[in-house]
Amino acid sequence: MNATTTLREHPTSGPHGADVAAGKPAAKHGTLASDWIVYAPLVATTVFSKFSIPPLAERGLGIGLPLVFLTLGIGLALNRVRFHGGRLCYFSLLIVTLGAMQMFHQRFSMMSFIYLTAVCFAYTLLVPRANGKFPESANVFMNMVLFICLCGIAQFLLQFIAGKSFAFPIETFTPKGFIVEGFNYLNRLSLSSSVLKSNGLFLLEASFFSQLLAIGIVTELATYQRTWRLVLLALGMTFSYSGTGILVLACGLPIVMLANRRADLILVFVAVAMLTYVFAEPLRLDIFLGRIGEFSSTASSASMRFTSWLPLFENVLFNDSIHTVVGYGAGSFLGVASQNPYPVAEIMHAKIFIEYGL
Length: 358
Description:
The chain is an all-alpha fold. It has helices at residues 3-7, 17-21, 28-44, 64-77, 85-101, 110-121, 134-161, 164-167, 169-173, 206-222, 227-240, 244-260, 265-278, 286-293, 301-306, 309-315, 321-326, 333-337, 348-356, and strands at residues 82-83, 125-126. The longest helix is centred in the middle third of the chain and has 28 residues, at 134-161. 28% of the residues are buried. Mean pLDDT is 81; it is low at 1-26.
């Protein structure tokens, strides 16, 4: 959610905007209510990401998005959430245009179109807060990331002490129908290994855990730069044994270095690389290298999620100028993807271009 970004755009709007403009502190209960609304999506999409209800579970959908909209609905009713006028206009134009385009397609899924509408609609809302500043919001995010990181570290170690059932309690004890299906929760280090990768206890896969911690590392370096937290986040990423976080760091760290003129971080990277080389064998860090090598394997998850959409665009989408512009219709992704010579994961950006075009 971009709520924390919009805070700076309207620092004096909202129920207590006049008090803020006059230099008076906003009512504490109002600020707390707004805080809960702002941070609810973070909790809903992390701590509750595995949980679902029938029939959403079998469709691979959790209760996170419904919880987000329930919170926003309560916020609108209490006048704690407002519409952003410009974004609402752009959103309306987008939905009307895409909706009209669906009349020209043979394939059309109303549920897929509703899902796109719901995701985009969330960004038309803002939560005015008197104390809404990025460092404060970033610290709340970092605390949540640290909590999940500690759970993930404990989870990885607990499987050797108490067994996998207690290390992965949600997967073990949650009844079928109330846990999201279609994700690889219990992911072994390798086919011959009995050790499971950490998924941070709450997250859908080890790759999601790794990705969240990588975003946390980039955020920490861009804000507070607390060394002990960076060490813990790096340790958590190690126990995820996933290459997704490495890709996030490869994109994010250069930006942090350039934006903050932190050339000294190069020395940190060199030190980490040396430690990785020294402890590669006992900590099985060679698995990371193997994961990176999966990009060249068309049957791997790394290829499906990160590179397989490129030949799909080249071989299918860009071969037809009309479909390049208007797409193949809402809900058509899986059918179109079957024409690709390699398996393709239903990831958001590829799905949007295939179904709705440029």
